[in-house]
Protein: Triosephosphate isomerase
Amino acid sequence: MKRQQIVAGNWKMNKDLAEGKDLAKAVAAQKSASDVVLILGTPFIHLSAVSEIIDGTDNLHLSAQNCHQEESGAYTGEISASMLKSVGAEYVILGHSERREYFGEDEALLAKKVDIALAHGLIPIFCCGEKLDVREAENHVALVKEQLSGSVFHLSADAFGKIVIAYEPVWAIGTGRTASPEQAQEMHAAIREMISEQYGAEVAEATSILYGGSCKPGNAKEIFSQPDVDGGLIGGASLKAEDFVAIANSF
Ligand SMILES: O=C[C@H](O)COP(=O)(O)O
Structure:
């Protein structure tokens, strides 16, 4: 079965509204006619406007970068999954290392976020990945297994079949230091094996696993050519339409 190829941009906390609209318009104007699913992961306040801009396009989709784990209530400053759905988001990035590091998000909390996102019809792009010390101690595969076990392996096979996994080695995020294609392939194959053990080969074969961490037009082709790499979660390079679309055209 052919897996979905996905290139998702994570704008993080960048671009004011006017700049974000310009970026979305530029991506919409340049996008390729290929089968690649292109996702714009915008700040919350951009979602409505970007949703209108990409409405009617073939392969452009909208993602949020986080959601709260509860349905609604007294959580000042927070945004719920149903709110995201109501403004046109189809995806939500969960478990990003910056959320883990700066906002203390752990596996138990992320499991709740994954559940509520799915309950509202959002597709989680679930991030996992090790820090440098873990990689150097060669515990990276075990660590990623813990992350997946704690946050997504409680799902039924049906529910798991809806999600996207993003492997992002923390040491490669925003550092200019990319995982080598071999390092990416090793981990992606290991993740697919974990999924296979949990849900069987069919689900594992159908799951899109994205690579993230200093992915750029110059290195995307080599990384995406690995058999278990199904695309990328792109930070810095997603802020320039030309670079983002060039990455999408790297399959
Ligand atoms: O979500 C995206 C990743 O954190 C990668 O960021 P980067 O491409 O700037 O290294």
The CA atoms of residues 21 and 50 lie 6 Å apart. The chain has twelve helices and eight strands. The mean pLDDT is 96.
